[in-house]
Each structure stands twice: as C-alpha cells, then as structure tokens.
Amino acid sequence: MLYFSEKFEFAASHTLWNTKFTDEENFKVFGKCANKCGHGHNYIIEVAIQKSTTDKQLFAADYEKIVDKNFISVVDHKNLNADVDYFKKANPTVENIAEFAFQSLDGKFESAKLDCVTVWENDRTFCSFRRD
Questions:
Q1: What are phi and psi of 45, to 5 degrees?
Q2: What domains does the chain contain, in order, with CATH numbers?
Q3: Is-contact 103 43, C-beta < 8 A?
Q4: Catalytic residue list contains 14
Q5: Average per-residue pLDDT in the chain?
Q6: Quick check: 58 pLDDT over 70?
Q7: pLDDT at residue number 130
Q8: pTM here?
Q9: Using CA atoms, how far apart are residues 64 and 6, in angstroms rounded to an integer?
Q10: Within 45-121, where are the H helices?
C-alpha cells in the first residue's frame, strides 16, 4: 500500500459563536474567536490518501486539482460563517473544518482512498479527521 500526503494553504475568516449562549458566555468559551466582526487565519491542510502500489492512475497534478476543486476553492478567501453553507449550521472550529474537508474530498480520488485530513489553524492548533 502506498501512502501519499500533500499540504495546501488557504486563508479564511470566521467567528465562533453559539446562539444559545449570552455574549458573556460566548467570550468566555471562545475568547477572541467570538469577535462578531470575525478574524482570519492562514490555514494549512494536509490531505493523505492510500492506494495500491500498482495503481498508476492518480498523479500529483490530478491530486492537486481534486483538492482545489472540492475544498480549497470553496473556502479560500471566504468568510466561513457567511460564505460556506456547511458553516451556516456548524461552528467553523478547526475540528469542524477538518470534518468538512474530509466529507468534501471523500470518494473524489478515483481508485485511491482518502485516509486522513489534518487542518492547522496556526503553529500550535490542529485537528486530524480520519476514516474509522
């Protein structure tokens, strides 16, 4: 089995907010991320696939096009809360972004299988979403 991974970058803004909380509770739970005007990150996403060593169908250029078309173009330079339908119902936490990326890319790699998506919000904070 061959494991292939590549990192991509995207920039996006978001606000973390729970409508069931008071303003005070939101700032207590989410801190500066609860700024109603939002704030931005330069995210890094790592997408890992696995495929048979005999499978020669998927090349790096194809891989990049798939990730760009199905995820990067959806989130890059966007306000996640306002511009991405998924995040109109889910808080755009790093955990939810990783899950959304996995769902957006799963099944798109022809004969390869999506193994893991890791999203870095900054140098210290990241989340990985893997297939069970």
A1: -120, 130
A2: 2-11+40-130 (3.30.479.10)
A3: no
A4: no
A5: 93
A6: no
A7: 96
A8: 0.92
A9: 8
A10: 60-67, 73-75, 80-83, 94-105
Give the type of residue at 87: F
Supply φ then ψ for residue 40, to 5 degrees.
-120, 165
77 is catalytic: yes
Provide the CB-side half-sphere exposure for 13 (13 A, CA): 13
* Known active-site residue 33: yes
Q: What is the pLDDT of residue 21?
A: 96
* DSSP characters over the chain: -EEEEEEEEEEEEE----TTS-HHHHHHHHGGGG-TT-EEEEEEEEEEEEE-TT--S--HHHHHHHHIIIIIHHHTTEEHHHH-GGGGTS---HHHHHHHHHHHHTT-STTSEEEEEEEESSSS-EEEEE--
Residue 56 tokens, joined? 């020669």
How far is residue 132's CA from residue 8's CA, in Å, rounded to a whole number?
23
Structural contact between residues 105 and 114, judged by C-beta atoms closer than 8 angstroms: yes
Q: How many residues does the chain have?
A: 132
Under a CB-based contact definition with an 8 Å cutoff, are residues 49 and 115 in contact? yes
Of 77, 95, 110, 116, catalytic: 77
Owner of token pair 């936490």: 93
